[in-house]
Write a structure and sequence with these properties.
Blueprint: H1 4-7, H2 26-56, H3 63-87, H4 97-130, H5 135-138, H6 141-162, H7 164-168, H8 186-223, H9 229-232, H10 238-266, H11 275-299, H12 301-311
Helix pairs in contact: 2-3, 2-11, 2-12, 3-4, 3-6, 3-11, 4-6, 4-8, 4-10, 8-10, 10-11, 11-12
Amino acid sequence: MQTLQEAQLCFPLLLNSSCKKLVLPQPVRTISFLLLSSMSLLTVTLNLLVIISISHFRQLHTPTNLLLLSLAVSDFLIGFRMSFQTVLLDSCWLLGDHICAVFIILDYIITSASIGNMVLISIDRYVAICDPMHYPIKFTQRRVKVHVCWCWAASALIQIVLLRDNLIDPGSSHSCSGECALVQDQVSGLVDLLLSFIGPVSIIIVLHVRVFLVVVAQARAMRSQITAVALVKVRVKKSEIKAARTLGVVIVVFLICLCPYFCASLTGQGQSVNVISDTFLICLFYLNSCLNPMIIAFFYPWFRKSMKLIVTLQILKSGSSDSKLVKSELRH
């Protein structure tokens, strides 16, 4: 039979080199497992519905929706990432150093791409509201697809360069067997923080403040019976303003969920051994990927309609991709 010491090791046969398990009280462990499992399943399911909806129905193939599709793909992958968090409740990694290195890099790539998608969405709304005359030219479906590809490629390239030591010598910094830790020097950490948080968040805030000012200016002009042309050059469509409000909610939720995690890293508290606070920050970080499709479902009737067609398997019928889900003037 195992001794108490062996039972608290990730690898009981490696007494001298194995990491110790993180022993949580059973109620805490059970609640954490159920919470993470539920969030993972809900995130994967809801984002999969968004992916199928925008991919299948031709009427939803708009520039803005293509950006939402890319965001849903990154959130879908983050949902799968959350399932691994349930395996790591006892802080034991059982899949080896090489898979650990790949796992960490993929995690950073997906997260970076998700943040990049938020920046693209902010730029999309900025141009649609502040320069509506040139929006159809600047944001064609072809150009948006190129921008999305560049976003994912840049995320992959930047993270591979910054985390290359994890691939070159996997497990070199691990103090014991069963540990899966990030290898990153201080300079790379600061560059990653700048490119993955400070820079994107600054761009997002500046663009949305500008959008807000333009929308307020138009609203005042309409209330005072002054033509909107006098204040914002060209009147913005109501559909564009509605889309800006909806995606503005997405951005606000994104900032609320991600800022605490990155602020903890910025202040040097990311290495804290406080399990409860770290778990809360991680759950809040992942919650964003679960909330995004819920916001889309709440504000966009087309998603609720498409979800009904998907769940009832009506999308398997011939010609279902040409179903009319929204009026032509509300396609954004």
